[in-house]
Amino acid sequence: MDTAATKCTGFLGGGCGQSVALVACVSEEAPAPRKGRGPNLMRSTTVTRNPEVPAPALRCPDCDHPLIYLQTVIGGVKPLERWDYFECRSCGFFKYRHRGRKLRRTPIIPRLRGQS
User: Domain spans of the chain?
Assistant: First the structure.
């Protein structure tokens, strides 16, 4: 048997008449979990309403009305990705991903910083 000290934590709970026990044991000598990526590979995201390259003029796939441009999100690691967000007054919100050239319905729109 290993002589390294071990920490164990547990949880005992139940729901619907069932008991559940979860136990996690970690050796004191185990290596620390890896931190995130290095500073040069960290992901950053920019949200703007005035991108350098204008958003494409798109039409709603459901009702064929012109979509109203809302904002652009640029982010990820290299190569950077870009998503343009649009609204159809009758059908809801859409996002266009440039890498895949796909227009998809979306329930949420990322907020600009400082926007309430």
Answer: 43-105
